[in-house]
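Exam revision sheet. Question 4 asks you to relate a sequence to its structure. Input first:
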Amino acid sequence: MEAEFYDHLEHPEFDFADVKGQESIKRCMEIAAAGGHNIILIGPPGSGKTMLAKRLPSILPPMTLQESLETTKIHSVAGRTMERGGIMTSRPFRSPHHTISDVALVGGGQYPQPGEISLAHNGVLFLDELPEFKRGVLEVMRQPLEDRDVTISRAKFTVTYPSSFMLVASMNPSPGGYFNDPDAPVMSSPAEMQRYLSKISGPLLDRIDIHIEVTPVPFEKLSDERRGESSIVIRQRVTNARKLQSERFLEFEKVHYNAQMGVKQIRQFCKLDEASLQLLKTAMERLNLSARAYDRILKVARTIADLEASENITGNHISEAIQYRSLDRDGWFG
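Answer key, structure tokens:
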């Protein structure tokens, strides 16, 4: 069983080597994986959002035997078919349709069963076309995102299922799929844009650290025969960064990686020198970034520094992290 468990790590089903171009998005996915950050991809149809999301589990650190057993238990409670050998060796990737009910997403029923967020425990939950999900469904996900478990209460008993997952969401930038593109086949009015984007609540967006715009790949890159960097190479860098974080947060029981940092840890581990602080202040004023972006930028900058094995956060780390807050900029959410 152990040989099979480790053999799977070397042959991921979906590999980043298959992705043509999109270097900046791959970099973004690597940062998200290294710090356990939730991420939202914004781009027109056919730009590769789903393809990139499916490959995220292949660069996450390998599951420990304990995580594997934990994940297998949840899936067996839900009556899901096991992988061969009876134990789950790869991190789950769950992609529910936007018509899903809140019970199916968070769990429930007369005899409470785990929902999609628990089936994604130790893996990835992918919500494609985020604004198409019912607002009520997205709202019930806020508490599990924060607490990393979900409690379902019934008259006679209460059951708690773990739900520590990475959220990857994707969306078109407008109802027609294109944003501010004069050559687009479908244009949306500002009122339609606002109505579409307002389906995503601020508190849910608060829990997503990285926003990145995905643009279609040009033909020259699509037709390039060279393979990109493989998931195994990227995963090694991610694993090294996670080891640094594990050592850093040893004294904190519920904090294991950067995305889980609270205000206390951010103040302790994300100190900036005067030049970096001034850079962040200027960027927030010039780009009209909201207050919610401040802590998110610091968390992501800490992860970028960890990928470089840098003890201190520098101006370069801050300036890269600022690029990953697209939805906070003026013009997206009013």
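Marking note for examiners. The chain has 16 helices and nine strands.
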